[in-house]
Design brief:
The chain is mostly helical. It has two helices and no strands.
């Protein structure tokens, strides 16, 4: 019985030491990451925004601009096609009217 309690206590102590070591490593990693973020912010001009945030907005603005340009190009092409179709229809109508006028 005492051996089981001693064994459980030893396992618990080993587990606690392992957790403490993991937490220590985690704290070190967090500290290094924060320091690196500070360096990149200082290099970017010291803004409070995260470095990725400005890149995301720039990419989003670029995508929206290209989408607008594509839409305008498509509308222009559609307008030109409709204009061409209207002219052809008008010419055919004029030919029909001339044919009917000459027939009488």
């Amino acid at each position: 019985m005492d051996e089981m309690k001693a064994e459980k206590a030893a396992k618990k102590k080993a587990r606690e030491e392992k957790n403490a070591a993991s937490e220590s490593v985690g704290e070190t990693i967090r500290r290094i990451a924060v320091e690196r973020l500070k360096w990149t912010r200082e290099a970017d001009g010291g803004s409070d925004e995260s470095p990725g945030r400005t890149n995301k907005f720039a990419k989003l603005a670029e995508i929206l601009q290209s989408q607008r340009e594509q839409e305008l190009t498509m509308r222009r092409e559609q307008w030109e096609q409709e204009r061409h179709d209207r002219r052809n229809l008008e010419q055919r109508f004029m030919l029909l009217l001339e044919h009917l006028a000459n027939k009488k």
